[in-house]
Design goal:
Two copies of one chain form a homodimer. The longest helix of chain A has 14 residues, at about 5-15. Helix content of chain A is about 35%, strand content about 20%. The N and C termini of chain A lie far apart (about 45 Å). Chain A is an alpha/beta fold. The radius of gyration of chain A is 18 Å and the shape is globular. In chain A, strand 1, helix 2 and strand 2 (about 55-60) form a beta-alpha-beta unit. At the A-B interface, helix 1, helix 2, strand 2, helix 3 and helix 4 of A face helix 1, helix 2, strand 2, helix 3 and helix 4 of B.
Chain lengths: ~160, ~160
C-alpha cells in the first residue's frame, strides 16, 4: 500500500463526518496567506484557520513569483480578499543551496538547464521583505494596505513579524 | 483590529502549547500535495496530515505552472518526496471566468495586460489530467511513479480520483 493509499483512507474518514457542505466560495476572513510548502509549517494550526476562512497559497520558500501574483490577483479581484499574510520559516530548505548549484546539478544530470530561478535565499528576513516588495510593485493586485510578512520559527512554534 | 491581528493572536496561542520543535526538515511521508488555494479545501483535514508529514503546494486552481514544477523539483531532489497528490475541487472559482475576459478586464482597468495566463478551466476532470500530464512531461522532476489526481467535493467532503 502506497502512502497515497493510506492518505485516501484518511480522506474517507474525513468525508464520513463532514458537516461543512454549505460554506460559500469567498473566504470568510478576506485573507490570503502565502507560505512555504514546508511540512512543519501548518497555516491552519498556526493562524487558527478553519475551512472557509482564507485562501492558502504555498510553494518552495513561500516566495512570490509570477504564479503567486496570478493567484493573489484572482483572490482579490474575484473572491474579495483584502489582506495578505506572507510566511517564511527558520531551517528552510531554501537556505541550504544556491540557485546556480541547483540548476547546474540538474543540467549535468538531465542535460537541460531549468528555465526557472530556484529562488533560493541566504537571509530569511531579507527574502520576506523581497516578497512583500514584489507584491507592492505588482500592478495587478488592487489592495495593498495590509501586506505583512512573518518568519515562523519551527523550533518554537512562534510567528515573528518582519519589519 | 485587522483580521491579520486577530490571526496573530491565534498564533500566540499555537506557540504557547507548541510541542513539535524537533521535527526533521524532510517530509516524513515523502509526499507532496498540489492543491487549489480554495478556503474550503483543507489538505490537513482531508488527508489526515500532521506537522512534518508532507509538502503542501497551493495556488489558484491547483494547476501546475512553472512555479509548481520548481517546487516539486526541489521537493523531490532536495527533500526526498516520491509521491505526488493533485487536488482540484467542485465549485472552483476557476470555473467561473475565462482567461481572456479576466485579462482583458485587468487591461481595461490598469492599462497593462497581465503577462501570465489566468489558468481558468471549464472541465474539472480534464484540468486534473492536464496537471498530471504537465508533471509527467517535465524533465526536472525525477520520480513519477505515483502522480495521482483527485477532485474534492466541497459539498460532501469526498475525494474522488480522476483516471
Amino acid at each position: 500500500m502506497s502512502v497515497t493509499d493510506e492518505l485516501l483512507a484518511n480522506a474517507e474518514r474525513y468525508a464520513a463526518t463532514f458537516d461543512k457542505g454549505a460554506l460559500p466560495l469567498p473566504p470568510a476572513k478576506h485573507v490570503a496567506v502565502v507560505a512555504c510548502m514546508d511540512a512543519r509549517l501548518n497555516p491552519y494550526g498556526i493562524l487558527g484557520l478553519s475551512e472557509g476562512d482564507a485562501h492558502v497559497i504555498r510553494n518552495a520558500g513561500g516566495v512570490v513569483t509570477a504564479d503567486e501574483l496570478r493567484s493573489l490577483a484572482i483572490s482579490q479581484r474575484l473572491l474579495g480578499t483584502t489582506e495578505i499574510i506572507l510566511i517564511h520559516h527558520t531551517d528552510c530548505g531554501m537556505l541550504t543551496f544556491t540557485d546556480d548549484d541547483f540548476r547546474s546539478g540538474i543540467e549535468r544530470e538531465v542535460g537541460i538547464r531549468p528555465p526557472w530561478a530556484a529562488e533560493a535565499f541566504t537571509d530569511l528576513d531579507a527574502d520576506v521583505r523581497q516578497s512583500v516588495r514584489r507584491i507592492q510593485a505588482d500592478p495587478f493586485i488592487p489592495v495593498k494596505d495590509s501586506v505583512r510578512g512573518f518568519v515562523y520559527e519551527v523550533e518554537t512554534g512562534k510567528l515573528r513579524e518582519v519589519r
